[in-house]
Amino acid sequence: MCANYEGFFKKFHETIDNCMDDVTRNNFANLETNSKRVAYLCSLPAIKSYDLRSDIEKSETGGEFPVKKDLEKARQLKDEGNKAVQKGDWAKALQLYSQSMVFVPRKETEELSILYANRSAALSHLEQYEETLSDIKRCLSLGYPRHLRYKVYERKARTLLVLKRNQEAITAFQNTISALDEAESLNKEKRQKMRTDAKLMLEILNKGLTLAGNPKDPEPLKKTPPKPKLPGKNNPQYPAASEAIQIDFDEKKGRYATATRDIQAGETLLIERPFSGVLLGEYSRTHCQNCFIKCSIPLPCPNCPNVVFCSEKCSDTAQKTYHSYECQILPLLWKSGCSVTCHIALRMITQNRKEYFNEISANIDEKPTGVYKTSDYRNIYHLVAHEDERTKQDFLHRSQMTVFLVKLLEISGYFDGKPREKPVEIDELKSMGVDEKHNEAVALIGGLVLKNLQILQFNAHEVFELQCPKPRVGKNIIKHNGKSVFLAGAIFPTLALFNHSCDPSVVRYFCGPYIVVKAVKNIKKGEEVAENYGPIFTTVPKENRQADLKEQYWFDCTCVPCQQNWPLYEEMTENYMRFKCDSDRPCPNVVAVPYDCQEFMIKCGLCEQHTNILKGLKSLQDTDMMYKLGRAAMEEGKYGEAIKKFVEILKLYDATLAPPYKSYYDCIQDMRRCMLALGNYSIV
Length: 684
Ligand SMILES: [Zn+2]
Ligand SMILES: [Zn+2]
Ligand SMILES: [Zn+2]
Ligand SMILES: [Zn+2]
Hints:
histone deacetylase binding, Serine Threonine Protein Phosphatase 5, Tetratricopeptide repeat, 45% helix, 15 strands, SET domain-containing protein, 3-stranded antiparallel beta sheet
């Protein structure tokens, strides 16, 4: 993820750079810890006198600031929603009511309850019955006006009938009848008719239930996809990984993953939640702030109009931890133009209380032993940061970023241990300095933020979803044709231990907030299991791959394609087949056999023994047909079936041939596309 310094931070960065004379620069360069770097910079007069107000006022992008809800706007959107209803456009109404909710101030509970009631009507027309019930529940808990309640109780009853939850429907009809007593604005006749109808329904339902022996209601349908699970056992030391993976260490490579046994293509090797993950600003009103899934029926934050959640569960998690601090400062972050990496560095702090960092700070430089937990900040702290190789300019730039993030933490109330309730006033930004009473916190937390920024440079991952075009009526969604779209940045502590290869043996995709890593190749016991940090050898020439990796990750790639100068996909020859040496005592050599070869005993150039290629050719003769079947299944959206076929083909290939060759990578590429189609997606 590359940094993007447009927005007001760029100006701040340049101004401070220009203000620093040689003495200050030297002082800074001589500092040895992250804590001291941040504390020193914070103490400089140039920082203390830096006034952000006009920059923020000028900035038009990145959300409203100061953060405030807007009742008028909410009402306007609601009216538009009501108009859509009159036209019978329920889908449009659903959208407009959702947009309206975002702007309703927290104290306007009645206004919000009416919106939930209206949205439940739209949902019921759109036959989204479980969601209808959820919105009715929200509406009632917010104190929907008593004289209108008969409407939602009746809607609830009818919805439950559709879902065959008859016992609950009985209660809802009873509630309708009592609520009708309070329906003052309803005229007598209508009231009487509704009452009679409800009573009739009750009679029918009771009779039916008695006849059927009073069966229990069916369970409500669960919409949230189940948490993905590793098929076999976990690695006891690294529980996010399968027992087929172990983490090894050597001085040169650091920590890396290897296979503890033969692994078959298609196997799930790792499932991990991010330690921290941050949604990009541009998706904050369409995707869940907490789990990144697209919300067609969003729940807004009660305090700001900037973010939405997919469920009460995600909303609670966020409000109890990071979002209560971030709520008021989000537009500042977005307006600053800092990269999502900076935001993750901040989130790594706001999601835990200050006391947590106080507690662990004493021994933080000792690598924790014991089970490697995803949620343990100390594991993140010990990921690669290359602190010794950094230049003072690098430290200076990142420290300036940190000063800004620390300022935001102060404003958010984090240092006081209590999220602020009042909106931020613009005058609070007339200085980038932090109140001296927070000096200790600035040194500790600022030092960690600076460390986070360095760690994230090498260890962050992109979170993406497939965006697929609306399918034509009667057609399946052809998800494998979707486009991968970058939604969020995140850090996965166990996955971060995997090294890079330009010919990776795994693919990663997302299931809700979880990252799922699967083998796309057969991997032999003892082999390294590598993922990919960006460039793939089949499409990017070696010089470019090496340069990219060096620039962003600071290492020289020594993967097999890099060492052996493997050709790009386009340049792979189709003139001969690459047989594995298969003599009585096979050697690691590749025996090149032209397609029009007339012999069947071919001498290996290395061990000088003979390989009988007839056996191999025979086992490969069906692979073309099998590949066609796999492709056909994929085109029909039968991804599981397609993957099975591709796995079978790879097994046959691997028994006889040695990569690289085109049909091998065709098969891997299609298997990868099928796997991506199993992950998060949205229809656009
Ligand atoms: Zn969510
Ligand atoms: Zn908020
Ligand atoms: Zn490489
Ligand atoms: Zn040989």
